[in-house]
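Holo prediction — flavin-adenine dinucleotide.
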Amino acid sequence: MAARRLVVIGGDAAGMSAASQARRFKEPDELEIVAFERGHFTSYSACGIPYWVGGSVEGPDALIARTPEEHRERSIDLRMRTEVTEIDLDRQRVRTRDLAAPGATDAWTGFDDLVIATGARPIRPPLPGIDAPGVYGMQNLDDGQALLDALRAVEGGEHPRAVVVGAGYIGVEMAEALVQHGYRVTVVDRAEQPMSTLDPYMGRLVYEAMCGLGIETVREARVTEIRTDGEGRPGLRRGHRRRRVPRRNRRARPRRTPRDDAGAPGGTAGGRVRRTADRPVHADARAGQRLGGR
Ligand SMILES: Cc1cc2nc3c(=O)[nH]c(=O)nc-3n(C[C@H](O)[C@H](O)[C@H](O)COP(=O)(O)OP(=O)(O)OC[C@H]3O[C@@H](n4cnc5c(N)ncnc54)[C@H](O)[C@@H]3O)c2cc1C
C-alpha cells in the first residue's frame, strides 16, 4: 500500500497532466493516484474537434492522446464515468457516483492530496430559444458527435445554411468546418472584426480568409432571439433579419463559484463542501510537480 494517495477530479488536460507529472516524480509505492472523470473520454484534444467535424482529421479516437488503459498501465487508477459529488475536507475524502451504474450506492475515497481540475463551463446566454433543437454548443467530444450526427442527417439537402454565433477562434474554426459540409455559413459577432483578441491587422487577415471561403460575416451585431419555424428549424433574430440553423458557439467561464472557492467540485453540478480550511487542495496544472516535491 502506498504511503500517500492523490485524488484528481477531472480526467482531461489539466487533471491528467497533474496525475502524470506526479507519477513521473513518485513511484506507486510512494504515491497512489486515483483520478475521477465523469465523462466518456479522457485526455482528448478539444482543439481538434472543429477539424474532426470538418473532416480533416478522423475522430474521435484520433483526438485522444492517452486512453484510460494507457493511464492505468502507468499506475494511474483512472475511473471513467465517475462523478465526484462532494468533498469532505474534514475527513479528507470525496464522495463519488458511478454514472454507468444508475442506482448504485455512492462511494467514498480518501485522499492525502486533492487536485481539482474540473475545467470550464460554457456560458449559455439567456436568449429566448437558446435550447431549441438544432442549436448546438461545442465543448467536448460528445458535442462534436451530436453536431456531426445532425450534419449527416441533412447531408445532400439543398442549400443548407448555418449560423455561427461568436467569431472567436472556435467560431471561426467551426464556420470553416461547416463550409466543408457544404453549408452556406454566416458568422455573427458583436465585435468589429473576427477574433477580436488579435490586433486589427491580423483580424483583417482572418476576415479576408473567411470571405475567401465564402463565409458571410455580420459584425457589430447582437443576437437577441432564436425562433423555430413551422418545420422545427431554428432561425435567428438580430435586428430585423433572420437566419436558419444557428450554431451557438458557447463561450466558457472557469468552473468556479463561491462554493468552488471553498473547494467543491463540479461548479454548478451540485458539489458541496463541508468546511473551508487551508487543506491540501490544488487547482492548477503545476500541482503534479508540487506533489512530486519539485
Ligand atoms: C472546440 C474547442 C477548440 C479548442 N481549441 C483550442 C486550441 O486550438 N488551443 C488551445 O490552447 N486550447 C483550445 N481549446 C481549449 C482547451 O481545450 C481547454 O483549455 C482544455 O480542454 C482545458 O482543460 P481542462 O482539463 O482544464 O478542462 P476540461 O477539458 O474541461 O476538463 C475537465 C474535465 O473534468 C470533468 N469533470 C468536471 N466536473 C467533474 C466532477 N465533479 N467529477 C468528475 N469529473 C468532472 C469533465 O467531464 C472534464 O472532462 C479548445 C476548446 C474547445 C472546446
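READOUT: The pocket of flavin-adenine dinucleotide is lined by residues 9-15, 36-39, 46-47, 49-50, 83-84, 117-120, 138-139, 170, 265-266, 269 (CB under 6 Å).
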